[in-house]
């Protein structure tokens, strides 16, 4: 790749004392590091002007395409501090690949995968002091917006790619707490031929009303059903879903309209390696209810980068509630979670070569 990053370190870094105070209980997504990576694209110049620079507001013309037609995509991955003091990324190449797929679906310029990974690594390097210890991590948010100043409806000719970083605490304090989920009957997330399989902001905009309904119903999260028959379980607003049965087998909905989660893919690989039977097959909400009642279903869990694995304890819908595993976290979910987290933090062997050491 011929694109070189120009490094412009901040001249007013956050003081050690202020940073330490922010890292005590960072929560999620409100604290940011001192720098960002940016790369621009234009039809005339291709990818150019790669920078590591102080984090600051973008100056955007009010007519830039993203503000009107929502040509926007993003990714989410984490850097983990190892006990030995190193820093690991987990499968950043998979995020880079998915980012290209998202760009393709949204008719956006495709960032070369090595540039994506390099931008992420540069931010981890320059903002290394912001890495929380313990079960915390540095959440990395690469994203890209259509930046052409034009109100006509067409793919933008210009794009701005950026990576920002946010230190985050352990998702669950005191161990994973099972979540309750609301089955959305009024809203769907994705249809065949739509954008459900790509990470675009628009999918989230469209899911917020359903998520708000879940909260109104006293649930933590919403689960969506397919848009055609309105009975097959698809995924949560931002996490994939797995089911564990009494014969030890696992099932997860097939790819197509769901987001191809890297956590989902990693769990499939780990479970298969452990000799478990794993199926990627459609599963209806009715079957879920019946299997929970008969005891055939032992566990259900959601998965994604942010929380890794969240057990599902209760399912609520207009046709009544049911619980799974007595509303408690299950052994299979917790075992897979530990295996994955240990690989991410460099505490366990990494036979699949998923970890990329930055330091
Ligand atoms: C990002 C995302 C996931 C989880 O993907 P991971 O790569 O595992 O973090 C699941 N569903 C949706 C809708 C997402 O946007």
CATH topology of the largest domain: D-amino Acid Aminotransferase, Chain A, domain 2
- What small-molecule ligands were found? pyridoxal-5'-phosphate
CATH first level of the largest domain = Alpha Beta
How can the largest sheet be summarized?
9 strands, mixed
Structural class, judged by helices and strands?
A: alpha+beta
Radius of gyration: 21 Å
Itemize the secondary structure elements and their pairings:
Layout: E1 6-7, H1 16-23, E2 35-42, E3 46-54, H2 66-69, E4 72-74, E5 77-81, E6 87-90, H3 92-105, H4 113-126, E7 137-146, E8 158-168, E9 179-183, H5 201-216, E10 221-225, E11 233-236, E12 240-245, E13 250-252, H6 262-273, E14 278-280, H7 285-294, E15 297-304, E16 308-317, E17 320-323, H8 331-344, E18 355-357
Parallel strand pairs: 1-3, 9-10, 9-16, 13-14
Antiparallel strand pairs: 2-3, 2-8, 4-7, 5-6, 5-7, 6-18, 7-8, 10-11, 12-13, 12-15, 15-16, 16-17
Helix pairs in contact: 3-4
This protein binds pyridoxal-5'-phosphate (PLP).
């Amino acid at each position: 790749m011929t694109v070189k990053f120009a490094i412009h370190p901040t001249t007013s870094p956050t003081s050690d004392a202020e940073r330490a105070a922010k890292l005590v209980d960072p929560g999620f997504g409100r604290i940011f590091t001192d720098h960002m990576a940016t790369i621009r694209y234009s039809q005339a110049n291709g990818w150019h002007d790669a920078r590591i620079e102080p984090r600051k507001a973008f100056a955007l013309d009010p007519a830039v395409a993203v503000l009107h037609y929502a040509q926007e995509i993003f990714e989410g991955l984490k850097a983990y501090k190892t006990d030995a003091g190193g820093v690991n990324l987990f499968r950043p190449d998979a995020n880079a690949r998915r980012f290209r797929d998202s760009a393709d679906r949204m008719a956006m310029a495709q960032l070369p995968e090595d540039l994506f990974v390099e931008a992420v690594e540069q931010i981890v390097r320059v903002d290394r002091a912001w890495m929380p210890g313990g079960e915390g991590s540095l959440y990395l948010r690469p994203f890209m917006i259509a930046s052409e100043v034009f109100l006509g409806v067409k793919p933008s000719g210009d794009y701005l790619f950026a990576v920002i970083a946010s230190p985050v605490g352990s998702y669950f304090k005191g161990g994973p707490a099972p979540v309750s989920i609301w089955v959305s009957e009024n809203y769907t997330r994705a249809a065949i031929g739509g954008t459900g399989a790509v990470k675009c902001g628009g999918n989230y905009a469209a899911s917020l009303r359903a998520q708000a309904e879940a909260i109104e119903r006293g649930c933590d999260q919403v689960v969506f059903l397919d848009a055609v028959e309105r009975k097959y379980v698809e995924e949560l607003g931002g996490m994939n879903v797995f089911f564990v049965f009494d014969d030890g087998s696992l099932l997860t909905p097939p790819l197509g309209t769901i987001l191809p989660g890297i956590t989902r893919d990693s769990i499939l690989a780990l479970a298969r390696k452990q000799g478990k039977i794993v199926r990627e097959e459609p599963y209806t909400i009715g079957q879920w209810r019946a299997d929970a009642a008969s005891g055939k279903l032992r566990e259900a869990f959601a998965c994604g980068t942010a929380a890794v694995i969240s057990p599902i304890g209760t399912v609520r819908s207009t046709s009544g509630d049911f619980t799974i595993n007595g509303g408690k976290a299950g052994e299979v979910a917790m075992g897979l979670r530990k295996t994955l987290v240990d690989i991410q933090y460099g505490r366990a062997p990494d036979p699949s070569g998923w970890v990329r050491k930055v330091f």
